[in-house]
Amino acid sequence: MTALEKIARLAAESSFDSVGPAPGLAIDTAKVDALGRGTKYDLCTSSAAKRGREDGLALALRGGLCHSFTGSGRCVSLFKTLYTNACPHDCGYCPNASTSSKKRIFSYSPKELARITLDLYQENRIEGLFLSSGIGRDENETMEEMIEAVRLLRTAHHFRGYVHLKILPGSSKEHVRQAMELADRVSVNLEAPSEARMAELCPSKGYENDILARQRYIRDLSRDLALPAGQTTQMVVGAAGETDREIFDRILLEYDVLNLKRVYFSAFTPLAGTAFEDRKKAPAWREHRLYQVDWLYRVYKLAEAEIAAAFDDDGFLRNSDPKTAIARASFDEPVDPNGASFAELIRVPGIGPKSARRILLRRKNGRIERMRDLAALGVAARRAEPFLKVGGKAGTTLDRWGL
Amino acid sequence: MKNGDLLRLLAAHRDSNDRLMARARTLSPEEVEASTDPEVLRIRRMALAVRGEVCRMRGFVRLAPLGDRVLWGRISPHHEIGFEVADFLARRFPGKLIVLGDGRRSWTSLYSDGALLHQEGCGLAATLAEISRIMDLSAEGGEEEEGREVPEEKGGGDQYEKEVDPPHIGAEEGAGTAAADLWTVYYQSQDEPRKAGGRRYGGRISQRALRSAGLDAEKGSGSAKLQDFI
After folding, report:
1. Residues 6+ apart with CB under 8 A from B49
2. What is the mean pLDDT of residues A72-82?
3. Is the distance from CB of A169 to CB of A213 less than 8 angstroms?
4. Cα dist from A269 to A94, A134, A140, A278, whole Å
5. Closest chain A residue by Cα to residue B108
6. Looking at the partner chain, which of A9, A73, A357 has a beta carbon nearest the beta carbon of B134?
7. What pLDDT does residue A164 have?
């Protein structure tokens, strides 16, 4: 018997089937399309989860995995869909709003959803499921069905892929708990930075009661539940005239008080048929600059007071690198990579946590005398050079900014 | 990067050689991380190139079922990473036989009862034909395997099988499953050209990766058409 024969026979005899036979459910592609479109502006396709290893299986990867990219370059790693697009709310930006014209209502059943997810997962097209939804008839009824779909996956089909479940505004604490037991990540959509802005976006949603109270449930419950990928949220940027500073103030609370893992931003795009269809589109770069500020706070651990230098007098970010703006405002003299601390190094534009750590390691084996060496350590030399003192050449270019 | 990981990745690189491997053996994780020595840099880049390809292949390979115990897919990796990808997928789908490969080579993996088994073989089509025969899949897999000749010699890793791919492993993606159609609909539903920013499609997914995994829903993406601008 050849080795291949042995393996093949073993597989044929194996009684365990993680995916299960396809019962041949006919699925309406118009539904897949409509409910897929409904989540087009939902963010967080990250599929990274820090789970414990079970049995040497390859589970959700610690670092996540992209399976595809849309034409505009966004990662498609999850089956990201709505459970239903029926919704009594009339959020001005939302294509699923009750007032949205030309809307056909679709809804999955837990079985259908589980089947599609398994089929796509088995063909290695996705890392898992991202399940959001309109409210349907009632938030608790819809939440129950969404949970049922994930429970089917996890228990009946032993699905170990990644699951991100949206908590619908207003869901009960019991539903939040059940969702957290099954999912890798849960999130409640914040959408607006404050109650007043929320009133403008969506008068029927209660900011404090429907959203923040649910985020607090999740925070409190996660003390006892694993929730490997944590709680996140997302905001729509530029639909209600809010400033970047307002958004930044809100994310500080989200991180510091509610222990969120990430906040995601979606630049507002006016959609035909919605109440906001005539409003101005928010530029894509605004989203990008907010992420940069978010990174400076969350990853680089810059203080709020330092980051404040990146905002202009009206509270907006410019379309330029906020870290450079902060460095220009705060650096008195160029940094010497041979003597600077980690905290000083990561404040230099072009040096991130990784290259800062490498610089510290490299310093043990002698001085760094050339920009070339820094570039080899991963420093973006062109951006960093004006702020560095390397090999006796220092600070000359700082003057160019008229500091 | 741990030294074991570095050696494993470096050994899989197509330009790896004994001298580089010997040098790599002497390196501490700190040196690999922070050395500015050109050769160490080269070693680091080579290891990262292999790691990058493993990641892309894991993400982009599409699997199609053959019977109910086999999942197969097309990959033509640059580096020696066939098992790295096949083992990963085998662990993900316990009890399923994972068969990956192209016209020349194939990698078969199975994770069952806590043990991982794998075997390298000649071309994908021949391996699948052989597995169909062993598993007696001729009834179910008839459309795939009917009339295919099984090459007489087995196990020659770098043996050329045929110039042309067999019909069921063509350039078009997999076996045209129902899920593939659902995927196309879903994939297209996620695109929003107005949200384009940063690196576009071409910067994320190379032509080589597209070809290697035979992704068809994605093929037309990223190429702007005239009407996009009107």
Report:
1. B13, B79
2. 88
3. no
4. 10, 19, 29, 10
5. A4
6. A9
7. 95
**Average pLDDT value for residue range B22-33:** 93
Cα dihedral B180, B184, B186, B187 in deg (nearest 10): 120
Quick one: pLDDT band at residue B207, thresholds 50, 70, 90? confident
**Residues B89, A58: C-beta atoms closer than 8 Å:** yes
With CA atoms as reference, the chain A residue closest to B198 would be A73
| Burial label, B43 (beta-carbon count in 10 A; 0-12, 13-18, 19+) | buried
Nearest by CB to A70, which of B64, B97, B191?
A: B191
Percent of chain B with pLDDT over 70: 72
First to last CA, chain B: 50
Query: What's the rounded Cα separation, in Å, for the pair A68 and A65?
Result: 9
Spell out the residues 6+ positions from residue B67 whose beta carbon is closer than 8 angstroms to its own. B132, B135, B137, B140, B141
Of the pLDDT bands very low, low, confident and very high (cuts 50, 70, 90), residue B1 is confident
CA closest to B196 among chain A residues: A72
d(CA A205, CA A98): 13
Centre a 10 Å sphere on the Cβ of residue A401 and count the other Cβ atoms it contains. 9
ipTM: 0.88
d(CA B52, CA A53): 23
Q: Kindly report the number of other CB atoms within 10 A of residue A32's CB atom.
A: 23
Candidates A346, A343, A320; CA nearest to A401 is: A320
The rounded distance, in Å, linking the Cα atoms of A176 and A187 is: 10
Handedness of CA A321, A327, A333, A334 (dihedral sign): negative
pLDDT, mean of residues B96-120: 92
Q: What span, in angstroms and rounded, lies between the C-alpha atoms of B15 and A363?
A: 31
Residues 6+ apart with CB under 8 A from A39: A80, A81, A82, A130, A132, B190
Reported confidence tier of residue B158, pLDDT bands at 50, 70, 90: very low
Q: What is the DSSP letter of A311?
A: B
Q: What are phi and psi of B70, to 5 degrees?
A: -120, 135
Give dist(CA A248, CA A317) in Å, integer: 10
Q: What is the pLDDT of residue B203?
A: 67
Which residues of chain B lie closer than 8 angstroms to A85, CB-CB? Answer: none
